[in-house]
Amino acid sequence: MQLSDLLEEYSYEILQGSTEIPVSGIVTDNRKAGKDCVFVCIAGANFDGHSAADEVAKAGAAALIVEKDVQVTTPVTVIRVDSTRRALAYLSAAWFGHPAREMKVIGVTGTKGKTTTTYLIRSILEHAGFRVGLIGTIEVIIGDEHIPAKNTTPESITIQEYFRKMADAGMQAVVMEVSSQGLMMHRTDAIDFDLGIFTNIEPDHIGPGEHESFEHYLSCKSLLFRQCRVGIVNADDAHHEAVLAGHTCSVETYGLTGTPDLKAENIELVKKPGCLGVDFDVTGLTDLHVSIPTPGKFSVYNALCAIAVCRHFAIGKDDVLKALAAAKVKGRIEMIPISDRFTLMIDYAHNGMALRSLLETLREYEPGRLVCVFGCGGNRARDRRYEMGEVSGEYADLSIITSDNPRFEDPQAIIDDIKVGIGRTDGKYVEIIDRKEAIAYAIHNAQDGDVIVLAGKGHEDYQEIKGVKYPMDERVLIEEILQG
User: Fold this and answer.
1) Taking Cα atoms as reference points, which of 138, 142, 147, 135 lies closest to residue 175?
2) Residue 444 burial by CB count (10 A; 0-12/13-18/19+): exposed, middle or buried?
3) Residue 116: what pLDDT?
4) N or C: which end of the chain has fewer CB within 10 A?
5) Residue 44 exposed, middle or buried by CB count within 10 Å (0-12, 13-18, 19+)
């Protein structure tokens, strides 16, 4: 491929050399630079690729893509652009042959609900016969291949590589989580989303290395609606109009109040042996009576959003209903049916905001007791421990404090911090450092009508201790406990 082909859809200035040269690939890591590569100089938090320009040129690079001045002593083409991160997205799309244009692309952004919503959308579409790829927090799915995720929204060159594999594997659509970081870092630039989804927004990811303020966080989310054809937004969120500021797409709304285009009404909580769910009616752009096997109002929002998306694929109502009834998301209010006497579930809630939302929801089902098994990650802000302890102490009838990923900290020290938070409430608790023993205690001491939630680990199948990730899947632990 010629360098000029890579740059065809992006504005640039030639500082030296020519664009009519063959290139062997695109590189952002100076340690991987080689003959005839295009090296894109990215200014990161810890290293600026511009400082390696001369080194890369000497290694045989064909071209350097820069956004500021560099000094090179070896003949090499130097191309200046307004943003190397943004240019990387466009060059990557061109390198892989613009694979997104061969599929329907659905992007989901929001503080909560992204993961569950993407799986629900994929479930409905696949149930209706579509082949659908997925990129998200838990994994990347390409046909039968499941690749563990490193980032919610990968780097742009990685996204385009996944898209190419998906298109080549016959995927007709791809649904992906689009994080505010991904939007801010231009990872999803060069993608023309067919559908852009907004679930909700709350203060999160604000601080050093993330977003400087809530307003900045909000503005990054809004970028999705300037690069999609149809925007589908949760009209009940107080900030939905701000998210749409400057949008260039047509807009559809969903919600539980007011007059959205798609509305959920007559919501009824459903409590069955070992399972919690919700029934509701959908009115507006379509009419359905929906039953979902997951609890709470947020489950209604997730399902309603998925229905709004799948309308654009002309899917029959029966397929929608069957897919929603069968859909499961690993580690997101995941029911583990082991008894008719009590309800057991696994959820990824690993901060105070998420845990509060979950426990408030479960309280609505009037459990005999609400039991919360949780810990907190090591080498993270201690305030999170106090907050989670206080939330569990306030909402759970019994908290079982245990280990999460202690990393390089002493598990008992983490538990002691959690107890500070619980101490601000009248909540009862026990502490059991070993997570398997803590889960066993919850199961063996369960009472009729209990709702037991294992919080914090969710989809994770490991426990990180002193830099080593040891296998630990809570589903496996439950099986071992039941086998005695």
Assistant:
1) 135
2) exposed
3) 93
4) C
5) exposed
Verify that 103 and 88 share a domain, yes or no: no
Condensed to tens digits (0 to 9), the pLDDT of residues 51-79 reads 999 999 999 999 999 999 999 999 999 99
Residues facing residue 278 across a β-bridge: 269, 292
- For 374, 387, 397, 401, the CA distances from 442, given in Å and listed in that order, are 11, 22, 12, 11
What's the pLDDT tens digit per position in 215-273?
A: 888 888 999 999 999 999 999 999 999 999 999 999 999 999 999 999 999 999 999 98
- Whether residues 375 and 266 share a domain: the answer is no
Number of domains in the chain: 3
pLDDT at 114 > cutoff 80:
yes
Instruction: Copy the structure tokens of residue 213.
Output: 């303020």
Alpha-carbon span 240 to 198, nearest angstrom: 8
Judge if 76 and 105 occupy the same domain. Answer: no
Token look-up 């109040």 returns 257
Instruction: Give the chain's count of helices (H) and strands (E).
Output: 15, 24
Range of the domain at 25: 3-95
CATH number at residue 20: 3.40.1390.10
